[in-house]
Amino acid sequence: MEIIDAENQVLGRLASTVAKELLNGKNIHIINAEKTLITGNPKYILEFYTQKTQRGDPYHGPFFPRTPNGMLKKTVKGMLPKNAKGRAALKKLMIHISVPAELQGKEFKKYKAAEKKIMPKSITLGGLSIKLGHKKMW
Hints:
It is a single chain. The protein is of the alpha/beta class. The protein has a single domain, classed as CATH 3.90.1180.10. It is built from five helices and five strands. Helix 1 (11-23) links the parallel strand 1 and strand 2 (28-31). The chain is globular. The two termini are 24 Å apart.
């Protein structure tokens, strides 16, 4: 089981690396999902995700998550193959907001390729989910 700290990690780079690891058969826990970065102009990012959440019918979908862990899981899911192998790989992924009690005191891993310093042209998943109307739970 690998535990990955998503703090200051770029969303797309983190998701693609995690998808590759899942397809190799590893169990992965991601912590601090609300601190994952989406790089770019926050105004356009907010417009893009607002359009995704308001798309479709409120009863029949398509539904897009507003929680940070839901957005991260949906991003990883989009990078997995659409077959039985991809569904099995997604079941091995657990995403947590902050650090849960059972994972405290264990060693966390960070991907160097996905790491980024906090930039003025970026927004965290936690900040984005609050702007989309999700209540702060962390």
